[in-house]
Amino acid sequence: MTIPEPAAATSHSETSVQRRARKKREAEARAHQPTKIELARQAKAHRDEALNTSLPTTSKGYQMMAKLGFTAGSALGKKGNENARTEPLGLVIKEGRAGVGMDGEKKRKFREVAEDVVSEEMAKKQETEGEFRERQGREREEKRAEALCWAAMRVLEEFEGEGKLENSRENDGEAEIKQSTTLPRPHINMLWRGLARDRQQRERERRMRYDLHQSLSRDAAYTDPEEEKQDRQAWGVDEEDVEEEDPELEAFNALEAAERLQKIVIYLREKWRYCFWCKFQYPDVAMEGCPGLGEDEHG
């Protein structure tokens, strides 16, 4: 009688710690309750698998037809018919409560949007390199003309407000321009009225932000007789003045930046004998020494 020797333990045998961890994972898997989303996903996968199978051999219908001579891959009916179906009709599961023609309408709208996007992309691609550079150049010129227009308005404000520019090219830019907003806006020259309007708007916003931070420490019933009108409006003591419409200014701002700049430059020359490009106020109307009216003439 021979007694078989026990198999030698291999290095790949499962330890007690690994066995406990495995049993714990198996117990957690058995105790896991699938959520509604997981159940719906499992049902959809099972349904898709069944629909993708044309005719399973385990079905009762296949077994009945097999007894009558049907073989898998052949068509029903008269032999020799090339148009006969060899696969059953496919099923399309309709999800949602929309009408039957809703999907077709969505597809039509989607096609229209896609065609518009494709046409826009093709139009962009058809733009040549020269056209692209020309468009970029126009945009740069418009931005530059807008900046020059605001600079010319500031010069005109200095002449017609409180102060005067020095008649010197060397001291250009050193004279301090005072922000004169004391005049009522309708009495301000239309050529630089937009500058005053923009400054008043920014000042109003600044005061509102400041007064908002100070409102937590002020009593609502307190009134200061020496308080300014803007402060009383900010605290809600007085009603704030409603900004009136200015059709004249709106019509002026509707012009191109280059055209607005041209109007301001001409007005400076005729009224104040000042050349915006020379940065100099001439002593007489002849303006002897000025190359001309435009920027190109000044080099």
Write the layout of secondary structure elements.
Layout (H helix, E strand, L loop, with lengths): L15 H16 L4 H17 L7 H8 L34 H25 L2 H32 L29 H25 L14 H7 L11 H7 L3 H16 L1 E2 L4 E2 L18
Helix pairs in contact: 5-6, 5-9, 6-7, 6-8
What does this protein structure show overall?
This protein has 299 residues and is mostly helical. The chain has a two-stranded antiparallel ribbon. The chain has helices at 16-31, 36-52, 60-67, 102-126, 129-160, 190-214, 229-235, 247-253, 257-272, and strands spanning 274-275, 280-281. It is built from 9 helices and 2 strands. 51% of the residues lie in helices and 1% in strands. Helix 5 (129-160) packs parallel to helix 9 and helix 6 (190-214) packs across helix 7.
Supply the key terms:
299 residues; mainly alpha; two-stranded antiparallel sheet; 9 helices; 2 strands; elongated
